Amino acid sequence: MTATSLHPPTHESARRLPRDLALVTVAIDAVMVLVNLAVQLAPDTPEGAQMRGTYALPGVWIPMVCSIGMAWVLAAALAWSHGRNALEKRGVDSVSRLARPRLRYAAAYLVVLLLNFYALSPLLYEVQLLFMPGGRLHEAVEPASIRTVMAVFVFLQSIAQLIVLVLGVWAAAWVALRAGRAAQLEPAAEAPGSVEDLGGASPRRAVALVGAAMFAALQMWGGVAMSRWSSMGRGVDGPELLFAWMVPPLVVFALAFWGGWLGAAPVLARARPFRAVAASVLAFVLVQVSCIVIAIAWLYIASSTSGLSGLGGLIGFVLAFALVYAIHVVMLMRAATRWLYRRYL
């Protein structure tokens, strides 16, 4: 009789660990957001009424909801990847011996979020105030350069928040998945099993899902970072704004999933989720760089030949560029996935 048949509930619980870590991540994030909103909006004061009026504006709540959703998808994908990676590298039996990994993960992740909410975010806000009118550094910067300085700072702030999110999930997973000394010395009763032993999605589907989630989250993150200082979209309101924020990430998710699915062959034996994360980041960077170069070259050629004259030329350029972008997402996601998984194919 195998160890799995002796302790099926424990092993089943271990197989559900990646999914549970992702759900715990989203649940804690949701509670923190609700508590923060309640603190800001609940008080029956003039300030609370002003905040409620501000959050009721589509130009405020739509980007905010999309930004929160982006962070949740990114954090959940990373948490799932940590759990799946532990199962694949250490085996189901070894993971099943961990003492309350979900509780330890929840506690560690909650501490990370509290530090982010009440330490890092206020600190970044205070630094931003230095460049605002009346700030200490406002007079040191020329008026013509203040917008550029603010744009660079906001972009760096978005980078810092992204790094904190990634490191926060990593730290919580490290606390949850590290084995004690006794567990490390105890011989494993089961070697890492086959793909079926791990449960959950097949390796090919897991690679495509993680890669697509990461790519779409990075795409949304780029949009959030740009919207903080760009004037694009400020004249759009209501359903059009919701469409502009929601539909492109969903389309990008589908395209990235397709590319990841093509890159991961059906014979893939292991998901190796962090290779999917790396493939997604690599593909995202390559897509942005290549499309920026193509756009600049295209605009230069069109301006030299008057190819963008009139509304028809502009619409044609936008449609053609969207098609080029979609092709790049699929092809570069496929190439990055195939390259990083070449030893497993």
Brief rundown of the structure:
The protein has 345 residues and is an all-alpha fold. It is built from 14 helices and no strands. The chain crosses the membrane at residues 21-39, 59-80, 106-125, 145-177, 206-222, 242-264, 276-301, 313-333.
Task: Please explain how this structure is put together.
The chain crosses the membrane at residues 21-39, 59-80, 106-125, 145-177, 206-222, 242-264, 276-301, 313-333. Keywords: Membrane, Transmembrane, Transmembrane helix. The chain is an all-alpha fold. The chain folds into 2 domains: 1-198, no CATH class; 201-345, no CATH class. It has 14 helices and no strands.
In terms of topology, how is this protein built?
Blueprint: H1 3-6, H2 8-15, H3 17-41, H4 46-55, H5 58-90, H6 92-96, H7 101-129, H8 143-177, H9 181-185, H10 195-198, H11 203-227, H12 239-263, H13 273-305, H14 310-340
